[in-house]
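User: Structure please.
Assistant: Input sequence and predicted structure:
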Amino acid sequence: MDELDRVKIGDDAAILAITSKLQKITMTDLPTIPLWYNGLWAQTNNSVWTNWPSAADGSNHFLPATWRGYWNMTSAQMLLDLKPAEAK
């Protein structure tokens, strides 16, 4: 963090290099201990969009998760995998 603090504003390459190191440290050296299970539920409808997340093989497995109004985890990928429903 001290190294990142010394990077000049606009030096995007240095910022990227240092934050990549920080991410690696966080993912390998710091334990993640969930304090509660919040669950993940979603309701979908195939009338306008299809290919919603499913446990089926070959389907969209990205999760539509939000937390405090923010999309996180793989929500953006889930939206990108949706397909328009066939016109009736």
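The chain has two domains: 1-33, 36-88.
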